[in-house]
């Protein structure tokens, strides 16, 4: 589904990603972990198409499409979803109306008719229940006045509405209490299928108790330096990142 | 030593001398003579004139204009200027003249809509006493100019208790090149009456023109007048528009000024609140593009206690456009318990766009609630990216944010079809 080869990216001439290689297949859950400043958020930003990041080398193909050639909205329409680490508040823009536009523009992109008002409302009802998002919140301005947990739940609600092929959760666990974490993880797990894939970017192992990964990658200094199964996350939790840093630094 | 060289003003007056008002009743002729005297004493504003500090009118006055002398019967397709889904009384003005043949007015008890010229000639008592009563020639050169040579306009006369459900849509068209036109409107709202008016200022093919429009609104006790002004002239077009209102007690006056385009548009709103329990709403949206210059000057003068005034102006300035906002609220010594709220927010879409914003309060009473504020910013790039990341095109994202931004400035547009029309206009500018 997603194939990243030797991806290099920089911001303001500072090289952050120094050659990422990653293969993700449908049905898989990948966790990307790593210390602060290792490039985790840069990777998600580059995949979503943030303009500030310049791709200086490598390639990313998504279901055969050259992802890096697409503008952000077309990436989303192709099925890439980024759950933001810091969801933006957009006063005056209704959460529901903008999602309706997003869904309809995506359908038009695929040559499909607009969703009917009735079907849309039914979808809102079903998906907001999934993340226990109050219907009132769902119809308010995007994230405006939402608590931290509500914002993250709204991200998963949007994800549920858009039904992406590849969901990238960028530190979705940060700032969540245990109940919110459970709700968010439950939402993600319910949406998981053999046809879609999930990338969980996180600092902590905690989230991975709920969203169990098939692979755990450790990102350090702009490269994936270690890949393992879910037990790698536990090891990192126990021993921290220093041993990995030492291993890598010893080799280089 | 005196020079014989004619000034711009002299030349302009000279050209307007061709208009013949000799068959008007004496009161109107006196008014015009008075305006001429006033004009002799007034000069066109320069950068030193505080009231016009940010708006250079050279563009307007350094041109030679033609005038239309009498009403024409040339057919004009007005269907382009109608507001979809709006059932309204249609009044059409073309190049300064009232076109009965193009207008469509439903007879209704308590409502009289006529050409102002006709009202003057029939020596309507109200018009005789009130024409020029609040839009005074001595105060402002463009009022004097209008009074000297307005060719026609609209008179709207509401009887006591007349509640007019069907809006009145005045379509004020210019369709001739290098034309100067002056229209004058009077709205008389008797006790407990209510009316909603829309006036669209349009041209047919982007003709270069200067329109100098003056409206006078007289609100009796407990009357309610909503005036929606839609300025939408393409090409090189200049407009100076003056609205004067006089509010008696418990009256409610709303004016929504929507400037969609125009090379140079200057709006002068002057609201005198002479009674208790009044409400005044002045809202506006201006969408500048290319080198458009849009200037909104408003004055609300609170002379009596227990009144509210609200003002929300929102500007979106694109390309090299310039916006000016100057809102002044006076709260006189007697006007205790006044609530006056004023707000001007702007979004600059380019580095070249400019806004000069100056909210002002002058308060002489001690028990009042007044606030004013002004903001200037850009669209939030992060928010645009967020919407894009969900599959919304950049253009739609920008449009959504602009629509959200201007929304509360449209809160007092009470005609749903008009609101939709404005939304559509904003959409077609910024959306798909």
Entry summary:
The complex is a heterodimer of chains A (252) and B (432). Chain A is 39% helix and 29% strand.
List the keywords.
heterodimer; A: 252 residues; alpha/beta; Rossmann fold; 6-stranded mixed beta sheet; 4-stranded antiparallel beta sheet; 9 helices; 39% helix; B: 432 residues; 9-stranded mixed beta sheet; 19 strands; 20% helix
Describe this protein's structure.
Chain A is of the alpha/beta class. Chain A has a single domain, classed as Rossmann fold. In chain A, 39% of the residues lie in helices and 29% in strands. Chain A is built from nine helices and twelve strands. In chain A, strand 11 and strand 12 form a beta hairpin. The two termini of chain A are 32 Å apart. The model of chain A has no long low-confidence stretch (mean pLDDT 91). Chain B is of the alpha/beta class and 432 residues long. Chain B contains nine helices and 19 strands. A ten-stranded mixed β-sheet of chain B has the order 2-1-5-7-9-11-13-15-17-19, covered by helices on one side. In chain B, helix 2 runs antiparallel to helix 6, helix 7 packs across helix 8 and helix 8 runs antiparallel to helix 9. The longest helix of chain B is centred in the first third of the chain and has 16 residues. Chain B is globular and about 70 Å long. Chain B starts with 7 loop residues before the first helix and ends with a helix. The model of chain B has no long low-confidence stretch (mean pLDDT 94). The interface between A and B is medium-sized, with 32 and 20 residues.
């Amino acid at each position: 589904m997603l194939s990243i080869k030797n991806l290099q990216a920089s911001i303001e001439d500072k090289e952050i990603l120094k050659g990422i290689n990653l293969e993700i297949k449908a049905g898989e859950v990948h966790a990307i972990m790593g210390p602060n400043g290792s490039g985790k958020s840069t990777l998600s930003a580059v995949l979503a198409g943030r303009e500030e990041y310049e791709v200086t080398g490598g390639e990313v193909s998504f279901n055969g499409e050259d992802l890096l050639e697409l503008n952000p909205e077309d990436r989303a329409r192709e099925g890439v979803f980024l759950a933001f680490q810091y969801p933006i508040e957009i006063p005056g823009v209704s959460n529901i109306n903008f999602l309706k536009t997003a869904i309809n523009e995506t359908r038009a992109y695929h040559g499909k008719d607009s969703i009917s008002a009735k079907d849309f409302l039914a979808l809102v009802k079903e998906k907001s229940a999934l993340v226990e998002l109050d219907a009132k919140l769902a119809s308010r301005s995007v994230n405006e006045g939402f608590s931290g947990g509500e914002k993250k739940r709204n991200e998963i609600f949007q994800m549920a509405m858009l039904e992406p092929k590849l969901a990238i959760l960028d530190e979705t666990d940060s700032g969540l209490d245990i109940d919110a974490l459970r709700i968010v993880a439950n939402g993600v797990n319910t949406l998981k299928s053999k046809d879609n894939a999930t990338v969980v970017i996180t600092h902590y192992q905690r989230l991975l108790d709920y969203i169990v990964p098939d692979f755990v990658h450790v990102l350090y200094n702009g490269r994936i330096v270690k890949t393992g199964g879910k037990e790698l996350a536990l090891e990192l939790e126990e021993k921290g990142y220093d041993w990995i840093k030492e291993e890598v630094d010893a080799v280089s | 030593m005196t020079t014989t060289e004619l000034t711009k003003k002299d030349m302009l007056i000279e050209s307007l001398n061709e208009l013949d008002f000799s068959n008007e009743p004496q009161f109107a002729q006196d008014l015009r003579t008075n305006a001429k005297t006033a004009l002799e004493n007034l000069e066109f504003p320069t950068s030193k004139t505080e009231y016009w500090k940010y708006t250079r009118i050279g563009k307007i006055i350094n041109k030679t204009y033609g005038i239309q002398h009498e009403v024409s019967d040339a057919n004009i397709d007005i269907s382009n200027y109608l507001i979809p889904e709006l059932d309204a009384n249609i009044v059409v003005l073309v190049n300064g003249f009232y076109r009965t043949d193009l207008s469509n007015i439903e007879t209704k008890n308590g409502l009289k809509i006529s050409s102002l010229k006709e009202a003057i000639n029939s020596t309507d008592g109200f018009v005789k006493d009130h024409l020029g009563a609040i839009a005074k020639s001595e105060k402002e050169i463009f009022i004097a100019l209008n009074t000297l040579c307005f060719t026609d306009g609209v008179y709207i006369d509401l009887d006591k208790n007349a509640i007019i459900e069907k809006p009145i849509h005045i379509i004020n068209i210019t369709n001739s090149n290098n034309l100067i036109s002056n229209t004058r409107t009077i709205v008389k709202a008797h006790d407990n009456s209510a009316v909603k008016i829309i006036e669209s200022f349009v041209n047919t093919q982007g003709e270069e023109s200067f329109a100098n429009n003056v409206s006078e609104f007289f609100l009796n006790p407990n009357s309610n007048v909503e005036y929606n002004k839609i300025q939408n002239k393409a090409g090189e077009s200049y407009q100076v528009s003056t609205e004067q209102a006089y509010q008696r007690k418990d009256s409610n006056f709303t004016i929504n000024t929507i400037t969609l385009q125009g090379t140079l548009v200057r709006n002068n709103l002057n609201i005198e609140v002479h009674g208790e329990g009044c409400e005044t709403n002045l809202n506006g949206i201006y969408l500048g593009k290319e080198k458009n210059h849009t200037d909104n000057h408003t004055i609300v003068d609170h002379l009596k206690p227990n009144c509210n005034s609200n003002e929300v102006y929102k500007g979106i300035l694109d390309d090299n456009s310039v916006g000016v906002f100057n809102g002044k609220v006076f709260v006189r010594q007697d006007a205790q318990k006044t609530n006056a709220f004023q707000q001007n927010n702007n979004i600059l879409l380019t580095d070249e766009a400019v806004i000069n914003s100056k909210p002002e309060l002058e308060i002489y009473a001690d028990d009042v609630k007044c606030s004013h504020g002004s903001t200037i910013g850009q669209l939030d790039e992060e928010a645009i990216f967020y919407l894009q990341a969900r599959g919304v095109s950049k253009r739609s994202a920008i449009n959504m944010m602009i629509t959200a931004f201007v929304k509360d400035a449209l809160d007092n547009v009470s005609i749903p079809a008009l609101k939709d029309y404005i939304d559509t206009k904003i959409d077609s500018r910024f959306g798909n």
